[in-house]
C-alpha cells in the first residue's frame, strides 16, 4: 500500500474517533444537563414540600398564639390593637431568624354563645405563595355544663334519673341512676331525716343507685358566688336593650311563650291557697286563680334575649329563640326576693341548640300544686338564693317530670317526697336530662366558669 493511501486511512480513522468522541460527549453533556435539571427540579419540589408542611405548622403557631392571648385577655378579639384584622405576625425559629408569617382572623362569639373562632393562615419566607389555613374553635364553658348543681345535700330516689354530670357541694344520696360522672365536695357528711337518715355520718356519695364507678368524692367545691349572676346588671341590660316590667300591685306576671317567637303576658290578680309543707306547714299561694292581659300583651323576644320582671313570674309555652327570663326586685332583701313558678310545659321549638331558655329566680323556682300529671321543662333553671322545688301536698301523687337542660339550686332540691320507699307526694318518676348545646351556648348573660377550652380544629382547603 502506498504511503498516501495509508495516510488517508489514518486520518479517516481519526475523524471517525473524533466524531464518536464528540457524539458521546454531547450525549454525556445532555445527560448531565438533564440530571442537573432533574436534581434542581427535585430540589425545588422538595423545598416547596417542606414549605407546604412548614406553612401548616406556622398556621398552628398562630392558633396557639391567640389561645395564649385569650387566656390573658379573654374579651379581646382584636389582638390588642383595637383595630379590625387580619393581624399579621412574623414567625421566627429558635435563633430568632424569621422563617415565615401567620395571618389571623378572629371571629368573636355570636348569637349569645361563648365560642370564639380563630382562622390562621401560615406561609414561609421562601415560598410566600404556598399558604395553608386552619380554623379552630374555643369556648368558655358555662355553669350549664352540668345536668345538676347543688350547694347543699341532695337525694335522688329510685325513680329519679340523671343524664349528664352532677355535682353537689354537700353530700349525695343516690338511689337513682346516673349515666355520667357524679361528684361531691364532701368526703363524709351528716345525713338528716329529710334524706331518710337519723343524723348519721355517710360517705360523700352513697346509696343503692349507680353505676357507682362514676362516683367521685371529695372533689373541689363550686363557688356559688361564681354561679350566681349580677341581677342588677341584667336589670340594666333589660332596661337598655331588652324588656323590663316593673312590679305589679297584684301577685305577679304570667308569661306564655309562643311558637312564633313572641310571648303573651298577663297580670296575675289572685291565687288559690293550697296547704303545703317545706320545712313547715303553711298556706302556699302559687296556683293562678284569675288574671288579666296587659295592654299590650304580646311582645317579641328582644335581640339581647333579656326579659326582666320585677315580680313573681309564672311561665310556660314554646320557646322559639334564645331568652333569659329573670324574676327579681331590689333592694335585695328577703322580703323582696322573687320566685318563678312553672305553670305548664315548657318546650323548645327544636332541640338543636337554636332555642334555649334560662330561668333565673332571685329566690325559688317552684312547681305549683295543680301541675300536670306529666310535666316537661326545657330550660336552664337557676335558683340563686333558694331552691328548685315542689312542696309536699297531701294525697297529690303525679306520674312523671322531665327536665331538659340544667338544674342549678342553692338550697336542697326535690320534685317528689319519699315516705319509706314509696312516693307519697309529687312525681313518681323524675328524669333530669342534660342539654349538650348549652355548655358553650348558654342562655343570654348566663354565668360562665373557667377558661377557653378546645372545641374543634380543621384545615380549610384553598
Query: How many domains make up the coordinates?
Result: 2
Instruction: Give a quick account of the main beta sheet: strands, pairing sense, barrel closure.
Output: 14 strands, mixed
- Label the overall shape: elongated
- Radius of gyration, in Å, reads 35 Å
Distance from N terminus to C terminus (CA atoms, Å) equals: 80 Å
**Can you give the mean pLDDT?**
90
Strand content: 35-45%
Strands, total number:
31
Low-confidence parts lasting 5 or more residues at pLDDT below 50? none
Structural class: alpha/beta
- Roughly how much helix do the residues carry, as a percent range? 10-25%
Helix tally? Answer: 3
Layout: helices, strands, pairs:
Elements: H1 3-72, E1 87-92, E2 98-107, E3 115-124, E4 132-139, E5 148-150, E6 154-156, E7 160-163, E8 166-168, E9 172-174, E10 177-178, E11 182-184, E12 188-191, E13 200-203, E14 205-206, E15 215-216, H2 224-227, H3 231-241, E16 243-245, E17 252-257, E18 262-277, E19 281-300, E20 306-309, E21 313-319, E22 322-327, E23 340-348, E24 356-361, E25 365-366, E26 374-383, E27 388-389, E28 396-409, E29 416-418, E30 423-434, E31 453-460
Parallel strand pairs: 5-8, 5-28, 6-9, 7-10, 7-30, 8-11, 9-14, 11-15, 16-20, 17-21, 20-22, 21-23, 22-24, 23-25, 24-26, 25-27, 26-28, 28-30
Antiparallel strand pairs: 1-2, 2-3, 3-4, 4-31, 12-13, 17-18, 18-19, 29-30
